[in-house]
Amino acid sequence: xxxxxxxxxxxxxxxxxxxxxxxxxxxxxxxxxxxxxxxxxxxxxxxxxxxxxxxxxxxxxxxxxxxxxxxxxxxxxxxxxxxxxxxxxxxxxxxxxxxxxxxxxxxxxxxxxxxxxxxxxxxxxxxxxxxxxxxxxxxxxxxxxxxxxxxxxxxxxxxxxxxxxxxxxxxxxxxxxxxxxxxxxxxxxxxxxxxxxxxxxxxxxxxxxxxxxxxxxxxxxxxxxxxxxxxxxxxxxxxxxxxxxxxxxxxxxxxxxxxxxxxxxxxxxxxxxxxxxxxxxxxxxxxxxxxxxxxxxxxxxxxxxxxxxxxxxxxxxxxxxxxxxxxxxxxxxxxxxxxxxxxxxxxxxxxxxxxxxxxxxxxxxxxxxxxxxxxxxxxxxxxxxxxxxxxxxxxxxxx
Length: 399
Prior knowledge:
By secondary structure, this protein is α+β, with helices and mostly antiparallel strands. It folds into three domains: about 1-85; about 95-105 and about 310-399, Elongation Factor Tu (Ef-tu), domain 3 (Beta Barrel), CATH 2.40.30; about 140-275, Helix Hairpins (Orthogonal Bundle). It contains six helices and 13 strands. β9 and β10 (about 345-355) form a beta hairpin. α4 runs antiparallel to α5 (about 210-250).
């Protein structure tokens, strides 16, 4: 109690002197402590937020590292698989890769028209002479009908010329010849009578029985009769010429011209028939239909390809070989090959073609000297024995 009283007095004296009392000091210490606690709490809160951010950052970094790791693993796996594939699938450096091929025939026709029917489909195997498609052209049909009619007209005209003049005209000319001959006979008879009359009159004139006028009249009658005979002879010749012309008919030039017109008409018919031969397209060889270009109902022009036929019975393999390796691949050599598409089937082929591929396939030297340009040759080989399921486009490995 006494101590408290003394403290109270001391506080009052301290307060009177202007210094803080004990209670005020206590309150101040409590405030300072509260502020310190508040600051510590704020610092702790700020520290907690920073720790949370740092934690989240670490989580993101961990996820990023995991993703990068996964990608690296994936890339490593893909690279390993690629390397494995290259090591196991790529032919060795001593191998040459070629490709199977065969003769491909494009089927087309001379007839321009509309494709009305297809008798085959892609993938079908056809034989030489088999009907493939039909093309119809109304214009060509009309031209064909016209050409046939012109041929008939020319043939009839030529027949008329070759037969010559009609029978009635020939008979009429023959009758005219007979009449002319009859008139000539009469003229000859009249001339004979007038000649005798003139001779008698002339004798009587010489004896002085008749006058000179009578003799002159007889002489004029004889001259007239002689002229009549000449006219009759000319008439007979003219009638005979008319008969001969009627019997001979047209001239040789007319007959030749008529035969020429008939030949021209026949040639026109054959020309159209040649076009109509391609109304039905026929397979030119055995093989497989690989492509059909137009559809039924489409128009096709002259010479446009309708389809292609691959002669898979005559297969070969083509290789691109640098010239320094040609010494091992002479013409006629039998080589050993593998066909990966047929489970690496082994087969033998015989070389039948070796030819330069041109300047575009030349390996140029990179140095000015010490090296040389090397050309590439195309080498083709046929199977010695048929290879089942061997098709164009398959790879062929030459060991």
